Amino acid sequence: MVLTSFASSLIDYRHYLRQSVARDLKKRYKRSVLGYVWSMLYPLLMMAVLAVAFSKILGSTVPDYPVFLFVGMIPFQFFSTTINGCLGIIGANIKIIDQVPTPKYIFPASIAISNLINLLLSLVPLFLIMLAFGRPIPWTALLLPLVLLPLFMATMGLSLIFCVADVFFDDTRHLTGLLIQSLYFLSPVLYGPQHLPDWLIPWVQWNPMFFIIEMMRDLLFLGVLPAPGIYAFSFLLCLLYLLAGLLLFEKTQDKFMYFI
Amino acid sequence: MSMIESANTQSSASVTSGLPAVEVRGVSVHFRSYVERPTSLKETLMNAVRKGRLRYYSSFEALSNVSFCVPRGEVFGIIGSNGAGKSTLLRVIAGVLKPARGEVIVRGRVDSLLQLGAGFDSELNAVENIVLNGSLYKRSSEEMRARTPDILKFAELEEFAFTPIKYYSSGMAARLGFSVAIDRDPDILLVDEVLAVGDERFQKKCRAVFDRYLAQGKTIIMVSHSMGTITSMAKQALVLSKGRALFCGDPKTAAEVYRDKNYETRLASTNGAAAVPHG
């Protein structure tokens, strides 16, 4: 089964993954002047700009709009940086692939893991903002891993699909940028699902980020548990994305050598 | 994947039964040479709609129905002119390239010295690279750190342990690559023109390692353009020409076959029938 062989590869290559992730995080945090602060400044600044621009439009319907916005940005940031990071990852590691018989998805997986750690780190500024707005951090925040699992699965699956496309087609990068941008506006990052027209809802829920963001808000913003039905649907949908990515990757990976 | 029988129990059992270390059976590898392949999705779709065309390659056989056996505990040479398929064959045996047809049976742990130091990160220093490279073979950082002094000592790079690889000369990087690979102690070693790098003293060291390996009953498959190396070290040699096995057997005869002026054209007359399966 693709899923079990993927999981066992992650375990087999844990030493590689740990080193690769550590190297990536070191690059991100140590080699810039302000390190961690700098990399957290980017989402904060984004949030500030967006909050100023949109609070007039949506602020009246959503209390503490900046916090609402930031909670939505965190999973989407993970989603988009991982997919973008996986473009070109096969080319960057082709010398290793040419020399060592490794399962090739450990390279995109290492990107996803390092971005996941980054996501956890960005919870610190979130909690600070929540405190600044006088909102207590809800106990449901402890259940975050339950949502991070489907988020990781869907992101991994789509990353693998775009990673494969990037090996075969030069313009994947442009297309991916366009798709992620569209998905950003079709995801409830800036707004809540209540702001969408009813006819659109059945369509946008196939976007894996739709319910993930909703559930993140349940746990971190509203302090309630996600509805079990929604959780189950979202989990299965994300699992499907992962399976699709793994199947496509496994089917095409033997050809990578000929195209790079 | 090619069928790989590994595990040490398997290999020790096959020593007694005298099975060859590597069996290559009817292996073909097709490279597609893309003449005017559209490299973007946009063009691909547009051409598919306009011309109804989806295939843009002519298939060319880098290896064509190659069969041979490599007995355990010997040096096996592979010779042939540029583009004959030697490196492709080593990649297939190493398991990084999947053959289109045929199978490769490898009995024991195989390790390759294809391009020395190819898997190194030039930003990292020798110690970090040793640990990183080990992790690609599922070895833990602790284990690799313990092995580092020996690896550096053999490579004679102790002084440069903390110098990023990008400042290394090609010979230094090759020495490190060689040391890292032999430290994994494989049962079957694939060697691609390794003896051409490094100075004479280091080459002597490499030969000493090869001799030790052979004494331990390990197998070495080497590609070389030097007939001297092949005739002096190999027990058997395979001559490749345009992806076909032309001859397999005594290295001196193999060298003669290769040196024969008609070596490339002989193929047409024999029509590849000389691909002697040997065992």
Protein described:
The complex is a heterodimer of chains A (260) and B (279). Chain A is mainly alpha-helical. Helix content of chain A is 75%, strand content 0%. Chain A has one domain. The radius of gyration of chain A is 19 Å and the shape is globular. The model of chain A has no long low-confidence stretch (mean pLDDT 91). The longest helix of chain B has 16 residues. With 279 residues, chain B is α/β, with parallel strands linked by helices. In chain B, α5 packs across α6. The interface between A and B is medium-sized, with 24 and 29 residues.
Beta-strand portion of chain A reads: under 5%
- Fraction of residues in β-strands of chain B: 15-25%
> What is the highest CATH level, the class of the domain at 1-28 and 64-109 and 186-279 in chain B?
Alpha Beta
Find the CATH topology of the domain at 1-28 and 64-109 and 186-279 in chain B.
Answer: Rossmann fold
Biggest sheet overview of chain A: none
Summing up helix and strand content along with how strands pair, one would put the structural category of chain A as mainly alpha
Oligomer: heterodimer
Look at the structure and name the CATH superfamily of the domain at 1-28 and 64-109 and 186-279 in chain B: P-loop containing nucleotide triphosphate hydrolases
User: Mean pLDDT of chain B, rounded to whole units?
Assistant: 80
Number of domains of chain A: 1
What level of helicity do the residues of chain B show? 25-40%
Based on the structure given, which CATH architecture of the domain at 1-28 and 64-109 and 186-279 in chain B is correct? 3-Layer(aba) Sandwich
Helical amount among residues of chain A, as a percent range? over 70%
Instruction: Provide the low-confidence segments of chain B as ranges.
Output: 1-16, 268-279
